[in-house]
Amino acid sequence: MKLEQVSTMDAPSDGQQPIGLMDFAHELTQKMKGYKVSVTKRYNTLYVYRGGDNYIMGMIGYGDFQTTGDGNDRFAVWSPNIRNMKYNSGLHQNMCLALNMDKAVKNAMKCIRPLTVEQTMKLSLRNCARAAQDVVSQIRDNTGEVRRELVNNFFDTGTYSAPKPNALQRELRHLVESGYEFLDKDLGGKMHKMFDGLKELATAREAADNTFTFVEAFVSPTGRQMFRVHTDVDATHHYSFIMLPDNTSVYDQHNLPDELAGKLSVLSMLGSEGYVEGVGYRAADNIFYVRGE
Asked: Longest Cα pair distance anywhere in the chain, in angstroms?
């Protein structure tokens, strides 16, 4: 289940929702202190979140949400903690329905809860891996352009009366017959650029091992700046990574390791989904993947 970032939500609900949904939201927020609701793009659903969180925790709704609707409105709860085996795809897999609002409130209180480190990482780890690989892809593409320019018309015999071998062909012939002095200085520069690019590509591939330290910054209910950290995250296996409990730590701003704090400072200057090789990736306002920890 893909969850919206709190920072990208629309303004809080202004009440222009079905009465049943507003009653549902009122009961839930009264029973779960700190829980808030905000509008979605669909008029009969609301996001559920807490101030200081990076992602919403789930959604609630009131309407006919069954794939084969029967015309009866029901109270709905969506959460990554729900596994609805009646459906094979889409949000319906993470939905439970109730005709009675009391039952629906109990469902929401049970299933809509703060995200775990694993759930938070799953929302952004794939994009982190893509950003790291984009660096390699860009260098590969740039080097490929030079390679194509070098080998264009390689050993071209030209027309019958005027054969036109290219510069590389002439240089290779001279390389064999003389002392490796480039006749075409432009070609010499391109050869240097080609091999420099290949070295840079090899270095980038070695660096892009897709191992990161995950960091989620959040504000605790008491107003303290906190950090949830999970080390040795392999972004290559973002669909099947295994959480190791011993790799998870929680810090406040006073005991956060200096190197980690320094790289977070750099990444905080980037926009969402920004990436800096050797430093890391900013997945969201307060979600980071740091290199070298």
From this structure: 92
